Records
---
Amino acid sequence: MSLGSNLGDRVGQLAAGLEILARFEEVLAVSDVYETAPVGGVEQPAYLNLVAVLDTTCAERALGAAHSAEESRGRLRRLRWGPRTLDVDVISVAGHRRNDPRLTLPHPRALERAFVLRPWLDVDPDAEIPGAGRVADLLARLDPDEVREVRRLGPLPGWWR
Ligand code: PH2
Ligand code: MG
Ligand code: MG
């Protein structure tokens, strides 16, 4: 799962999101927090992003947990790729591949997003995106200017690891 926030108390939003996810599934690992330049959409504040690994092989459960976490933070969907209190995206579930408008797996844009790949490497250096390759290789292929806009801030305060 990829968590992102660029409005209000960004750290608090991420921590609250993780707490909700943990009510659904065991959280096996949480990456460091990264500050990242916004990708796409309108001009908006910088994001904080992290990646969490949940103990599930069920895409529907992962999606349900993600939506609950977003709703708990009063997420408003005004603009595609616009600013948000908390965005939780299911990136990959147990190697599944599916093309469903509700949830496409793996996440179709993860392979080009340093704000997903960089924290993901923290928690799983051998991670692979089904059909796309190793996360480490995909990250190495990205424009270094974009990757440089990803700044590591360290662990999320108040969250166990
Ligand atoms: N999420 C988006 C759009 N753009 N940019 C960054 N840096 N981080 C995000 O999480 C993000 C984004 C849509 O979900
Ligand atoms: Mg997103
Ligand atoms: Mg989303």
Note: The beta strands are 2-5, 27-30, 33-36, 47-54, 87-89, 98-100, 103-105, 128-129, 133-134, 150-154.
---
Amino acid sequence: VTASAPGRVNLIGEHLDYNGGLCLPIAVDRRTSVTVSRAPSTRVTSAHPGAEPYVRGVLTALGVDEPLEIMVGDTVPVGAGLSSSAALTCGVAVAVDRLLGLGRSVSELLAATIAAENVHVGVPTGGMDQAAALRGRVGHALLLDFDDGSAGPVPWVPEESGLRLVVVDTGVRHTLATSAYAERRRSCEAVAERLGLPHLAHATEGDLSRIDGVALRRTRHVVTEQRRVRDLVAAAAAGDWTEVGRLMTASHASLRDDYEVSCAELDAAVDQALAAGALGARMTGGGFGGCAIALYPEGVEAPTGFPVRASRAASVDATT
Ligand code: GLA
């Protein structure tokens, strides 16, 4: 069985998944394909040596002990901030499910791919990337609510309004990325507990007056980002792209100043895009390097980067 799954770009709602909040990713038009067959012993072949722990993590999470040959073919660009790891784990999960006739639901496959990364690889990510890969819709963004687990499609075809979304890969990945990510997650959970909330995304403006210092800054990002996600969905529905751009840029400022997960290269990418005439720009994904996105009107040339569109194919796709 060959299955493929897309990479993702998050439009807004950053660092909200593990805080029980809202995110708005698009599954993009770059995919990873995985071919799985029965074999005498388990073997993983991939052009990227880093793939193996993710693949084995999915097999363990699915409780599969049959020997399988797993071949990773074309991939989402690796290390470019498009979440190639989620495209990989989701492609593997779907292909193995079909080959062995496991009959797992999308929610079960999602849980297995998240466990592969959290438990087996040991990175405490929040689940947005896997949800985008497994639940993405053609020509739509996905409004993911990590409070109630819902996922709703939101039309996303800026190209029809003469705009394009450009990804700028800074090409840097700072060494503190993984440890700082885990630290943000832990410290947000601690603030939520202090405030008596199940998740920090339940915090209100009123709660902000009960805390100070770092706790205040982190919480202020979460509270204001939640609002920006809703506002961006409304602005996109109304075709108000100027407002969409403004909200993207405001999200970046909040990630830079309050959540403190940006870096000089990301700030420079955002400043350069805005100076070139982008309607808005922001870092996307975990931060400390990786990618920024910028929304450009027709006729304005992006100084750097490559355009991405919402996926034009079904989110996951398997053929025998
Ligand atoms: C990474 C993680 C996601 C999410 C983002 C930040 O991409 O994999 O789960 O937390 O960072 O929004």
Note: The mean pLDDT is 95.
